[in-house]
Amino acid sequence: MTAQVIDGKAFAARVRGQVAAHVARICAECGLVPGLAVVLVGKDPASQVYVRNKHASTIEVGMESFEHRLPAMTDEATLLALVGRLNADPAVNGILVQLPLPAHLDSDLVINAIAPAKDVDGFHISNVGLLGTGQKAMVPCTPLGCLMLLRDHHRSLSGLSAVVVGRSNIVGKPMAQLLLGDSCTVTIAHSRTKDLAAVCRGADILVAAVGRPEMITGDMVRPGATVIDVGINRVECDGKARLVGDVDFASASAVAGAITPVPGGVGPMTIACLLANTLTAFCRANGLPEPEGLTA
Ligand code: NDP
């Protein structure tokens, strides 16, 4: 079998197009523009690239982008005061504090200072609890993007067996909650899981969020399964840097029914879902109907 390649880049472009059309309509009807504030502390090179991309994508869909760049030695009180101002600012519908923060800052404290309704990353403890109890939450962008790709591919996920490899708070756990919400039978695997290969072979849907280059190989994939590769790993190959996922694409795509590539799979969905979440937050704040197909 040669797997169908799920084109996350094209799907993300469609999501951004949907968001842009919705924003244009709101702007024409109500004269309001959704706004996203991104806070970057320090000069971590990868974070700078992410923040630049987020800014460009926000502008592209017609939203307001507010960038706050603070020096690496910023103290907690200063950062919390900024978050407080953004919470109170009616022009700001979404707040994202770029992680990782410098080591002297308490990420949990800062994230939990964001107003839950503006927490477009979905990391605030209230949103975690809402998602866990099946209530309306702001949902973390990467797992939301994976869910959108899966819903588009399968139409119904009900009754399918899903295995999520990885139990982080930002990907693995919310991914498992979302799949459970769509009535999959969910297993979460992690570094202590016994016979990981056998567990993975039980999956109709296999989500890899491990952070280990090409760890999931074809012999761990059930024939015909859908494989979602969340991993983004930079590796050296023949002296050149390249990006690979947590799945060995060559062997897995020979067995799977469908698979996301790296790059061009889950990655582009993350920013698209950040924009979708900002629009959702705006609609909820203003009592407007939420955009269809852009939430969990
Ligand atoms: P974390 O490091 O926080 O979590 C990794 C998880 O993988 C842990 O739960 C760990 O288990 C598990 N794990 C590690 N080694 C093994 C192993 N040998 N067998 C089974 N499980 C194992 O990573 P994240 O969740 O933050 O990210 C995962 C990947 O997704 C990374 O490659 C990251 O770059 C990528 N990513 C991509 C995004 C995108 O936009 N596409 C966004 C966010 C992340 P344990 O808990 O037992 O230690």
Structural account:
It contains 10 helices and 11 strands. With 296 residues, it is an alpha/beta fold. The protein folds into 2 domains: 29-120, Rossmann fold, CATH 3.40.50; 141-268, NAD(P)-binding Rossmann-like Domain (Rossmann fold, 3-Layer(aba) Sandwich), CATH 3.40.50.720. A 6-stranded parallel sheet has the order 1-11-8-7-5-6. The longest helix is centred in the N-terminal third of the chain and has 23 residues, at 8-30. The protein starts with a strand and ends in an 11-residue tail after the last helix. The mean pLDDT is 97. The site of NADPH dihydro-nicotinamide-adenine-dinucleotide phosphate (NDP) has 26 residues, from helix 10.
In short:
40% of the residues lie in helices and 17% in strands.
- Helix and strand element order: EHEHEHEHHHEHEHEEEEHEH
CATH topology label of the largest domain = Rossmann fold
Rg estimate, integer Å: 19 Å
| Sequence of strands across the biggest β-sheet | 1-11-8-7-5-6
Helix content: 40-55%
Low-confidence stretches: none
Task: Summarize the topology.
Blueprint: E1 4-5, H1 8-30, E2 35-41, H2 45-60, E3 64-70, H3 76-88, E4 94-97, H4 107-111, H5 125-132, H6 141-154, E5 161-165, H7 172-181, E6 185-189, H8 196-201, E7 205-208, E8 226-229, E9 233-237, E10 240-244, H9 249-253, E11 258-259, H10 267-285
Parallel strand pairs: 1-11, 2-3, 2-4, 5-6, 5-7, 7-8, 8-11
Antiparallel strand pairs: 9-10
NADPH dihydro-nicotinamide-adenine-dinucleotide phosphate (NDP) is lined by residues 142, 165-168, 170-172, 189-193, 196, 209-212, 230-233, 246, 266-267, 270.
